[in-house]
Amino acid sequence: MGKIAARLAVSVPPLAILFVAPRHFGTVVAVLAAVIVIDISGVLARAGARPVLLAAALPAVGLPVAVTLNGGTGWQMLPGWFAAGLLSMFALVVVFGRRSGVSEALGATSLAGLVVGLGASGAILLSTLPEGRTWVLGFAALLLAAEGGAALLGRRRTLPRWAFDTEAAVAARPLPPAAAQAFWASLLSTVLVGGALAVIVGDPFTPMIVVGVGLIAVLAAFAGGFLQRVAAVETGVADRPLSGGVGALTSAADAILIAAPLAYALARSLAT
After folding, report:
1. Would you say 37 and 53 are in contact if contact means Cβ atoms under 8 Å apart?
2. pTM for the full model?
3. Cα angle at 207 between 205 and 208, to 5 degrees?
4. What is the tally of helices (H) and strands (E) in the chain?
């Protein structure tokens, strides 16, 4: 799956259903979470971590479903879903007799389940806020601006290999100029879109909300690019895309998964 097709698959269905049948927005996001956790598990497996997919799927899919059914109270079920995922992972390890890489599998399973579960739930909870449709669309616009501005200068290819080498990282070398240029391009495009939201849409996108969500979008866009690059280096395909389309959906959704729960937490804190 190409980058454009992956981004369309991640963004178009939930945004379309938000206009056509808003009550089913959570269902669509939960289905996407199930697909993405399979994809991210494939990336981690290529890196040698081999997560237990069924165990990762419990918090990754269970939490969005709980939030869809129970609204904001579903968020409180996170510890239960996470514990269920860990217990099922240990049970499956025993059943299938895996004797090596158990600690790596534990970390990878936890990472896949929590990142996807929290990210998908954050997006669903944004839609449950007063004027939820406006929140989701505004959040999507700011995130698109952040990623689009950085992509104009090839953000996902600006970091050299030494940036992911432990010894080189300790040396604290400065980032290459292209990375700084991409950051400022991302920030500028986010400021422009955020200003337009504040002027045209108004409430709930007050200047304070725009600044907060905009900063989250910019940082999430770069964090997503960093994680993608790390995954590419770890899987040995740093200079070419992962074969078979593995990682395409993860690459398209990484910034959303990082930013959505933070944006929801900010919106709730400023609204109360």
Report:
1. yes
2. 0.80
3. 95
4. 10, 0
